[in-house]
User: Fold this.
Amino acid sequence: MSGAIGGRHLAAVTLIAISVTACDSGHDAGTPTAKAKASPATEHEARVLSQQQLEDAVVDAHDLPGVRVEEIGMGTEGVGNGVIHAARRTNTSPSLCAPVSAAVDGASGYTPAASVQRTVDSEGRGAILTLVSYHPADTARVLSELRTALKSCKQYTAGPMRATYEDIEATNAPSQGDDGIAFRLKLILTPDDDALPDEEVLKTPVSVTAIRHGSTLAIYKTTSDSIGKPASIPSDLVNAQSKLLDAAAHTTE
Assistant:
């Protein structure tokens, strides 16, 4: 890999890893095309976690020794807390891939009640962790729409950087939580206009897992640090965070 490609690869992955949904708001596609009815328990009994409850539920070194967790945009009001908005379907082409595109950014087509986003390092591997609390009726719909989209979405372009993803496929569903979906895809990085003639298109593996805990979704995303190497979300992170969210989501005050 040339130095020019390596530099662009690192910069692009860093920018894409930070959610671009802070720039998007509103659900402009009308009624969702693939509504799923939440179970009665989800609709009527799920506890909607507040902003403070979500922040308190983020995994730390007490829950997972050795983990390093940081706010995104530390020292600002910024990206770390409360920045997930409803993603516009028109910002993704083709629009049928909108639920997939939103999930990659830790979002959906629905407005959350609260949200937290962190960078996490565990076992020497990094990930973006997003916790999003929804109104109970919306939570199951988010996963239903994502599950439907993954059946037909194979490639899409989205976001202000017009990032392109392809080779999208569902993987084994996670065992944690009340429901969950996992998928992988590849981020396409094309050479700049001033690139050398022999510089080639790079395809960076990305993995995403979304797990429902009551009315809260935990979305984990990681990008491979090496071209051709699969992206792997740390299993100890998912296990530790799931325990915390299960306790928070299903404990009555």
Summary: Residues 1-15, 17-44 have pLDDT under 50 and may be disordered. Residues 3-250 form one domain.
